[in-house]
Design goal:
heterodimer; A: alpha/beta; Rossmann fold; four-stranded antiparallel β-sheet; 10 strands; 39% helix; 24% strand; B: mainly alpha; MetI-like fold; 10 helices; 78% helix
Chain lengths: 245, 235
């Protein structure tokens, strides 16, 4: 396990890295010199207060937004189209196609020219949606929709999986199932970048925690080090507020 | 001139007895308007999809023009097609004037902007909703448009039905380019206009009944398509 210093010093060729990212639509500097180096596998959490720029960071890393300055690299190289194809993202509010459960997964598989009903059914079973193939996806409950969104993301067999508060407002069972799947993905060598407000979830899952404040990473360390002795004033204040609550 | 009640009775008789002249007119009307709807969808849907999913210089002007063309006066379209298809016009050699084909062309021109503008709105709203997810899937433009059209199929079907409704109720364009020739280019709307001007209200009313029934059927279809789609959350 790496310690605080080694996470901060991970070089740009380690895995996924963002260097001095700036993003300022209009006149507001939403991301302001953000630098983050992540290894090429494991679960790594971005936490921080609302409006700190966690979701934006995720979108910049995934290439959904283009930074005004700075670079996102994968294993030291500028992110290529093939690198992007091997990434997937689960959004806080899942956007499901107006199709059946199975057709939602098939859509992604076909987009990668790998339509495989057996693989699709295995994915649906993995997220607890077996036997629901023909049900309209948008009639699923919130937790089921999120699990379907995760199955769709996994259909890509992603090298990097971004998750933006995937368990927010889910019941404990759905949240636990998603956490179990993330642990399995870590075991398979996938890099999972997770935005969460759930400190307990970060403690349970994460190999490292990066604290985002005002569009910057102010602290990035192992989960144990972060929760045992946060070094930044912002992280200490955030955690102490949570303790009071 | 018949009294209204007498004309209504005669009209009902024509409908119930499946009068051959009446049904010939109805058949031609449906053929012309359905053909025009299919063609308008063939041109209008891709145009709507293009406008919905691409950003280019002058797009705003293109949107204003397409939206403005939705209100095209049928007689102006009829006149325009007439000028092109008349013997001295650039397409006069085709000999299409006063044929059902000319009527199909006129109606196609009339409803293509309707199909394009309404489908653009449907697809653009959906594209806005799906945009981030599609970028995350790294989809190409063709895959994106295919997915939007498939997911928007119910809404697009109502767009097509709206186009058909407009075409079948239209009189100005088809009377100019079709000439309202008996057994050749006489459709419901032109026949109603003619029979009314002659004071022969029975056939006019009978055709009016069929036209109204058709309007009701189209609206019922739109309603039922929407209800089915909403029930299964595919709307």
């Amino acid at each position: 396990m790496r310690d605080t210093a080694s996470y901060l010093e991970l070089e740009a060729d380690a895995g996924l890295s963002a260097t001095d990212l700036h993003y300022a639509p209009g006149r507001s500097r939403l991301i302001d010199g953000l630098t983050l180096h992540l290894p090429d596998s494991g679960i790594h959490c971005l936490i921080g207060p609302n409006g700190a720029g966690k979701s934006l960071t995720l979108r910049l890393l995934h290439g959904l937004l283009t930074p005004d300055a700075g670079a996102v690299r994968w294993r030291g190289d500028t992110m290529s189209a093939s690198d992007r194809v091997a990434q997937a993202m689960v959004f806080q509010k899942p956007v499901l196609l107006r199709r059946s459960v199975a057709a939602n997964v098939d859509f992604v598989l076909k987009s990668r020219r790998s339509a495989d009903p057996t693989f699709r059914d295995a994915l649906l079973k993995r997220v607890g949606l077996e036997g629901r193939n023909r049900q309209p996806a948008r009639l699923l409950s919130g937790g089921e929709q999120q699990r379907l969104a995760l199955a769709r993301a996994l259909a890509i067999r992603p090298r990097v999986l971004f998750l933006d508060e995937p368990t927010a407002s889910l019941d404990p069972n759905s949240a636990r199932l998603i956490e179990e799947i993330l642990c399995e993905e870590r075991h398979h060598g996938t890099l999972c970048v997770l935005v969460t407000h759930d400190v307990g979830q970060a403690r349970r899952l994460a190999d490292s925690v990066a604290f985002v404040s005002v569009g910057r990473i102010v602290e990035h360390s192992t989960t144990d080090a972060f929760f045992r002795a946060p070094v930044s004033r912002e992280a200490r204040a955030y955690l102490s507020n949570l303790m009071v609550l | 001139m018949q009294s209204i009640s007498e004309a209504l009775g005669l009209a009902l008789g024509l409908v119930i007895s499946a009068d051959a002249d009446l049904f010939e007119i109805v058949r031609l009307s449906l053929y012309v308007s359905l053909s025009a709807t299919v063609l308008a969808c063939a041109f209008g849907l891709p145009l709507g999809a293009l406008l919905a999913t691409t950003r280019f210089r002058g797009r705003g002007v293109a949107l204003v023009i397409v939206n403005a063309l939705m209100g095209l006066p049928p007689v102006v379209v009829g006149l325009f097609v007439y000028l092109y298809l008349s013997r001295s016009g650039p397409l006069g050699f085709l000999g299409l004037l006063y044929t059902p084909t000319a009527m199909i062309i006129a109606q196609t021109l009339l409803i293509t902007p309707i199909v394009a503008a309404l489908s653009r709105q449907v697809l653009e709203d959906m594209d806005r909703e799906y945009a981030e997810q599609f970028r995350s899937f790294a989809l190409g433009w063709v895959q994106r448009v295919q997915a939007l059209v498939w997911d928007g199929r119910y809404a697009l079907l109502t767009v097509a039905l709206a186009g058909f409704g407009r075409a079948v109720a239209e009189v100005g364009a088809v009377i100019i380019v079709g000439g309202n020739i008996d057994h050749l280019t006489r459709v419901m709307t032109t026949a109603i206009a003619l029979e009314t001007s002659k004071g022969e209200l029975a056939l006019a009313l009978a055709l009016g009944m069929v036209l109204m029934t058709l309007a009701l059927v189209v609206n019922a279809l739109v309603y039922s398509v929407r209800a089915t789609a909403t029930r299964s959350a595919y709307a």
